Amino acid sequence: MKGTISTPIAVTIAGSDSSGGAGIQADLKTFSALGVYGASVITALTAQNTKAVTAIHEIPPAFVAAQMDAVFSDLNVDAVKIGMLCNAEIVAAVAAGLELHNVTNVVLDPVMVATSGHLLLAPDAIRLLRDRLLPHALVITPNLPEAAALLDAPQAVDENEMLRQADRLIALGANAVLMKGGHAGGAESIDVLVTAPASIRLIGDRIETQNTHGTGCTLSAAIAAGLARGRGLTEAVREAKEYITSAIAAADRLTIGNGPGPVHHFHRWW
Question: Which of 29, 80, 103, 162 is the most interior residue, by most CB within 10 Å?
Fold first, then answer.
């Protein structure tokens, strides 16, 4: 018998990480940890571990579209997180699927390069991602190198430049931008949530650990989880920032692999 209380549902559209620390696996762990049912649309299979991405198998765009049709035609989806998209054809397929199914509450994480340095988005797909997907996103979550790539500009070096680049992304069609300052220096990790009328600083301690695999995936998935549970954007972003900060702080409790390990998605329970 189906439950009478609505179950919050979030969908991740992203690549699979065979080591379990990022991508689809990190997203589903995050959804579960935050009390949200997770479904998935896989855009790529990666052979990777904590040290490197050694191979990528891109899913045919028609099959990406078929996954979206299957999920969105049946599940009452409350929020969507978009991550690794690989190439322009998959970007186009995802954009078409969002339009066909009138998808809202989209969190776009413009994944371009893995922590290991492996390129995850073809250069010719960046412009299409900017033109087709930015307008569909409630919020985009670029780190400093990703924002620079989207704008074809030098990487921001301070908070004022982060704000200027966020404003440029909004001018290109984004509804809101969470500029992630993890690549900047300093004792604090400062992210900035920018909308057309205002900006909000989100400050967390910069934690000394090499186990940061999947941080960007986890943060964007946590925002989607908050939206799925009915949070407003600002509240969802604040709660996601608190969650990822705690997951990073607990990462050294795990011993996973021989390179940069994952954050601890289930730090509240293990």
Answer: 80
